[in-house]
């Protein structure tokens, strides 16, 4: 790909003009309150916990790991079950769920020991647990402690071969870091063993980046034959692939930091997600930032259709305050992806919430409102077809609003 960056500012916000609130047109989404008494709602995961072929909601809350049981309709309550509690003295921070053995039920790992100010002592910062499933999943699950770095922050499961999976764990800081400087963050892939109580072989993904706030994983080949990931960091978005039994950097593509004048000279990417099967990448910048950016490129391990195409970077919005959640998907049935971003602190219009953006549409800096009937200070966001009707619904957890909401998509 040519190193030609074409920057497009589609903003009508204070950077260029006043926000056009008249463009916040409501879409056909309806809120259901799953829980309005959570503590923080650090992280969400989606998967079938009980094997009833319905997707459930899992939550890493401040002191408890819980799951909400899918009732099979859009009106009944989602019953809450506690999986684990008080794993460490500090807060829980993240969760990953995926069916690894093909039995139709998810395996679950969680991160805890959230203490980002402590970067020297791993006994006081960071924790990684695998949760062993009980016979009855509504009862407590057994935590198995795994090795960890300081400041455990994000985790996701990745398939790296036929029947072979790794838990990718991304800390926020490197050992001894201060103000995002010092040693690079050590990102590990934990190889899922036959006996989860046994040894988990670890594979180093990278140890060069700083302020690694999130990660996106993709599997473009069958049985994990083309698995890649991109890490959002102070240095931008760097890509790695699982090749020849180890993680290797991909230097031919990356995600760029926004222009310094747009971020007040604060460099870095906070949230990152692929869109349109890797033909672009969406980011929130800087970490906990205000900018929503979309960048064209080849974010896949497949051969680029047009490797000489110029790279186009588009700023979709700057209305976020503490932007902290991002998903991409075709929520509107148009054949191409939209971007949904969430933020957790009131912005200039004193709003928190989530908004949908169409990457190719100009003049919609405010985004499209889904449903603001219940306030949502968004900490995390997931997309999944919870009711099996063929369209993507949205699931959000709210930090200051202390809630978990479903945004049911009424497209079909």
TrEMBL record:
Q: Name the keywords, alphabetized.
A: Signal
Repressor in keyword set:
no
Q: Which domain of life is it from?
A: Bacteria
Tell me the InterPro entries matching this sequence: FG-GAP, Integrin_alpha_N
The signal peptide, as residue positions, is 1-17
Keyword presence, DNA repair: no
Protein name per Swiss-Prot or TrEMBL? VCBS repeat-containing protein
């Amino acid at each position: 790909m040519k190193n030609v960056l074409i920057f497009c500012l589609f903003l009508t916000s204070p950077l260029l003009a006043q926000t056009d609130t008249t463009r916040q047109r409501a879409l056909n989404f309806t809120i259901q309150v799953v829980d309005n008494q959570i503590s923080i709602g650090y992280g969400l995961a989606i998967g079938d916990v009980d094997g009833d072929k319905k997707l459930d909601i899992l939550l890493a809350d401040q002191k408890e790991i819980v799951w909400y049981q899918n009732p099979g309709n859009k009106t009944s309550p989602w019953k809450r079950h506690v999986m684990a509690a008080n794993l460490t003295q500090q807060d829980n921070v993240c969760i990953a769920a995926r069916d690894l053995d093909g039995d139709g039920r998810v395996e679950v790992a969680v991160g805890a020991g959230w203490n980002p100010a402590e970067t020297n002592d791993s006994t006081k910062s960071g924790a990684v647990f695998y949760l062993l499933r009980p016979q009855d999943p509504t009862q407590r699950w057994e935590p198995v402690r795994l090795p960890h770095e300081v400041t455990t922050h994000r985790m996701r499961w990745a398939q790296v071969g036929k029947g072979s999976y790794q838990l990718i764990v991304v800390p926020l800081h490197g050992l001894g870091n201060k103000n995002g400087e010092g040693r690079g963050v050590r990102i590990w892939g934990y190889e899922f063993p036959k006996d989860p109580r046994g040894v988990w072989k670890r594979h180093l993904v990278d140890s060069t980046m700083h302020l690694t706030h999130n990660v996106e994983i993709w599997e473009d080949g069958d049985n994990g034959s083309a698995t890649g990931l991109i890490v959002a960091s102070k240095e931008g978005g760097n890509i790695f692939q699982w090749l020849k039994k180890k993680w290797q950097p991909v230097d031919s593509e990356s995600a760029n930091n926004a222009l310094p004048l747009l971020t007040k000279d604060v460099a870095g990417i906070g949230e990152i997600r692929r869109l349109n099967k890797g033909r672009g990448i969406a980011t929130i910048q800087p970490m906990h930032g205000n900018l929503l950016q979309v960048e064209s490129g080849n974010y896949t391990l497949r051969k680029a259709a047009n490797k000489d195409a110029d790279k186009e970077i588009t700023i979709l919005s700057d209305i976020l305050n503490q932007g902290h959640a991002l998903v991409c998907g075709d929520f509107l049935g148009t054949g191409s992806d939209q971007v949904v971003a969430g933020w957790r602190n009131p912005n200039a219009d004193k709003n928190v919430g989530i908004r949908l953006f169409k990457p190719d549409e100009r003049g919609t800096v405010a985004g499209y409102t889904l449903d603001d009937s219940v306030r949502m200070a968004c900490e995390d966001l997931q997309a999944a077809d919870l009711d099996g009707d063929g369209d993507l619904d949205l699931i959000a957890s709210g930090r200051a609003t202390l809630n978990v909401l479903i945004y049911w998509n009424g497209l079909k």
